Every structure is written in C-alpha cells, then in structure tokens.
Amino acid sequence: MKIKHLLLSAFVLLTSAKASFAQDGELKNFTSMQMQGIEQITVDVDLDGAVDRLSKAVQFKTISNQDREDFDTQAFDDYHAFIKESYPNVHKHLKRELLGNPRPYSLLYTWEGSDPSLEPALFYAHQDVVPVPEDSRDQWKEDPFSGAVKDGYIWGRGVLDDKNQIHAILEAAEMRLKEGWQPTRTMYFVFGQDEEVGGNEGAKHIADVLEQRGIKRFAYVMDESAPLTPGIFPGIKDNTALIGIAQKGFISLELEINGIGGHSSMPPEESNIGILATAITKLEEAQFPYKIHPAVRHQYRYMGPELDEKKQPLYAAVAFGKDGEVTPMEEEFIDEMSKNEVTRAMLHTTIATTMFNAGIKDNVLPPTATAVVNFRPMPGDTPEVIIEHIRKAIKDDRITIRDISASTPATNIADPTGKGYEALEKTIRQIWGNDLIVSPFFVVGGSDSKHFQAKDFAPDVYTITAIQLESTTEFKGFHGVNERILVDEYAKSIGFFYQIFNNLEVLENHL
Ligand SMILES: [Zn+2]
Fold this sequence. Notes:
The protein has helices at residues 2-24, 47-58, 73-86, 88-93, 163-178, 203-212, 272-285, 294-303, 312-319, 328-337, 341-344, 383-394, 419-432, 450-453, 472-475, 487-503; strands spanning 95-99, 106-111, 121-126, 149-150, 153-155, 187-192, 220-230, 239-247, 251-258, 262-263, 350-358, 364-365, 368-376, 399-403, 437-443, 461-468, 484-486. The chain is an alpha+beta fold and 511 residues long.
C-alpha cells in the first residue's frame, strides 16, 4: 500500500512538471472540436401514425433466445408483413430481399441512387429483442409487449433497442419518397434478425453477400449504440452524443478438464473442479496489459476541451500521445480510467468467466469440468494470441481450450475528421441543437455493425442510437425493465434520419 502511495505521489509530481510543459506545447492546440453555428430545424412528422406503427411493431415477439431452436419464425413473418403494409412507398421504390444463413429472416433494402459511381451508404438496425425474464414482469409498469402509449411515452421491449431505429429509418424514407426525393448515392437498409446473440445468421451473412456483390467501399455506415443522454459517459454531466468509431472484438473460449472421476469417499489429491478453478483464478490474475486505443485518443481530443480545465493537460497528453509509448501523464490517465469498470474495459482485452459446469451428485467426483470465458479483444489480440496468453497463465497441459464462438476481431476505426462524421454531427445539431457535446468514442460492447466494420470495405461505421433520453435512468431500459421512449423524442428521431439522408449527399468517394 505504501509503495503504491509513493508511486502515486511521484506521478503527481511528474504530472505537474509535465503539465507546465504541456501548457506551452500541446495545450495551445487543444482547442474545441465542437461544430459551430448549426441552425436547429424542425421536421414535420406524421407523429400519431408513426407512434401507432412503432407501438404495433413492439407487439411482434421477435425474441432472440440463447437457444437458437427457439427462433419464432411466425413472429418474424408477421412482423415482415406488417412492415410491408405500413410503408407502401418504400416497398414500391426499394428492392427488398430476405437474407440470412441458415434462416433468411434479415431484411435488406436497396434504394438505388441516381449516380452508381458514388460509394453507397448503409443504415443498420435489428429486429430482434432480448427476452423479458418472467421474474421481472411485475416490475414493468406496462406490459412489455403491449406497445402501450401512455404518459407521453411509448413503452415496450424494443422501443429503445432497436425497433425505434428500424421504424424511424422507414418513416423517414417514406416521407422522402412521398416528396419525390431520390438519393444520388445508393442507400442500403439492413435489419438483422439476431443481433442480440451475435449476428452470425443475419449481419455477418449480409456483410459477406454485399462484399461478394462487389461493393468496394461504403462511404458511410450507421448503426445503434448509446442514445443522447446527459451523463452517459462517466464523469461528464452534460448532455452528450457519443458516436462510436471502433468496436472491440468478441470471443468465447471453453476450458475443459477431462480426468478420472470416482467415488467421493476416496478422492484424489486434486479434483477436476479444483484443477479448473485454480486455472481460472490464475487466468483472472493474468490480466491483459492496459494500452490506449487510437479511438480513445480521438475521444479525448473531442471531449477533453469541453471538460474540467484542470484536467486538460492530462487529456491533451492522451489525445496527442503516440501509440507504443506511455508517458507519465498517460500512466496517470490509465490509472484513473482503470478504477471504473466501464472505462477500464476501454483499456484492454477483458476476461469474463461466464459459465462453470461440473458435477451431478453430491457423492460422485465428476470426470469432466468446463468453464466458459468471454473475452472482448483489443486490436491485435487474435484468438491465437489469447489462447497463448491463457496457456502461459495457467501452465496446465491437462486443460484443453476450444473456441466455442463465431469470434469477431476488434474492428477498424472510423475517421472522425471525415465528411461522414461531419454530416452526422451536423444532423445531430440540426435536430437537437448546440447545447450538447458531440464526441467520438470507443465502444466496448459492440453491435451487429462490427461484422461490417471488421471488413476493410466498411471502415467508416458510426454508431449512435439517434434518440434523446432524459437521464441515465432511462438508459436502464436497454435489456432491463420499463424500456420506453418519449413520443416527442421519437418525432425528432424520425427527423434525424429524414435529414441525414440528404446530408449524406456531400460525401466524397474514398477510392
Ligand atoms: Zn441493440
């Protein structure tokens, strides 16, 4: 404890020395990156109709259970039919395909642009929702699948994650089509079927299909992530629009010990459960080292100047820091970030032991024990690197390691200085005004667009759920109880998509 305290004092000293240095150098370049002078607009929306359609959409139980045999094809078929009858112009002018492997329940819409030489744009959202656990039902103020519209809110599973985005996109497209508007660049809408269980049937397959069809590069891809919320990022009270520019990877590994079982009256010195538990303990002690991801540097370049002035030398050091070297100030930043589990996850490949199975009877030693560990990798931590890390940590050849997931690598990083980001920020400010911080950020969770962003044809994936929440309490509706959105904010969400379709017209080709 004492040593740590001393080390910390040393950091503080070094920090203040560096701070005065930084003030002279980096700090004078550490100016606000917030877009200025954007005029707020109001988009007229048929709100009663739109709310009614979203309310009905919630009533289709398009649930993703972990057990994939539980897939309710009827619920998806009915939902598709409902979408078709609700948006006649979309279905008259856009090409609609049902894709997915092995089950074709994801929707791909193609809105042909007038100039085929332009790189296309893609809007992503998912149809599936997480289940509502029986024991949480009584905490819901409204039935989660009733789509109740009450007290100024639309209630139900999926109104925030993520049917709101599907319907806001379709409402906006319907409005544009009625006005006779046509995009110059081709636009795709992709609505996946299994985002909540990894997206291997839907998004992953469609990313492959579009790649095979010869699309060289997307100018812009957008998907869900954090909604606009005051206090959404730890330590920042202001209303903030976080734009995800990179996502971590995903891999689940099963560790297994296969040995001799036997009777509990004559146990060996080590049981299989004991051996595996020791291995897991050793693995959890061998955490991956902390490093600053380039997306985190971008994040603090944008956020930093809007935050506490006293901390700006620190943020400037992170924003302008170089990969591969860690300055004392970056060390201090890492120290601070690692105290909170949300921000700590941004610093390294995480290790989460999620399942542990062994034994069936109190007097029988189980011949096998298995554990599942879920990792969220940083760039470079491939499955091979992670497996090697485990082997070194546990030093036990009796344990076998197997990849049980369709793993995805950490993604590319979208450009926060390009026209795509600019069009997105402009649209956010047109709809929600200028009294908010807009900043890129590094997504530790990840959504279906990772299947696109992991490929080189879609580096510029921007993720944000385009709706304003009142507070972080409302955010708990994501996968929780009382998922709901404000009716008036849903109108703005539709306005957002209506506006961004047109704002994307200015994007340049990259190739
Ligand atoms: Zn979602």
